[in-house]
Specification:
Radius of gyration: 21 Å
Largest sheet: 3 strands, antiparallel
Shape: elongated
Order of helices and strands: EEEHHHHH
Oligomer: single chain
Distance between the termini: 38 Å
Strand order of the largest sheet: 1-2-3
Length: about 120
């Protein structure tokens, strides 16, 4: 079977994926990056939300959906890190006094923020 076929009547191009021909996306690369958060959500969709994944893929909205989610996740992550830094009192003065303690606290803050973003956006 051919990898790509074109329907002359409709002008649509189809790609062989597994045993089925699905409408092929545009040949041009997407302008918006999916990013790490989008890739994690894509993995989640493929494993746990197969119907939603198929609907987004077939409609051609998957990349935009993942790029939007990635942007929201990045904004939430940045906001959470800033809030937690203020709450924990992690300052540049602490960094100058005790670098290892500052690194430990920043790693803890980043891990906390990553867990919140993952639970609220990525695996929801």
């Amino acid at each position: 079977m051919e990898k790509f076929i074109r329907d002359e009547r409709t002008g649509l191009r189809y790609e062989l994926i597994g045993d089925y021909y699905l409408i092929a996306g545009e040949d041009e690369p997407e302008g918006r990056p999916i990013g790490i958060w989008g890739q994690r959500h894509l993995r989640y969709l493929k494993q746990h939300r197969k119907v939603l994944y198929s609907e987004l893929l077939i409609s051609g909205k998957l990349n935009d959906y993942l790029a939007d989610l990635n942007e929201r996740a990045e904004e939430l992550f940045s906001r959470l890190v800033k809030q937690l830094v203020e709450k924990e009192g992690v300052t540049e003065a602490l960094k100058a006094e005790n670098l290892m303690l500052w690194v430990q606290k920043m790693n803890s803050i980043r891990n906390t923020a990553m867990e919140i973003v993952s639970n609220d956006l990525i695996y929801a």
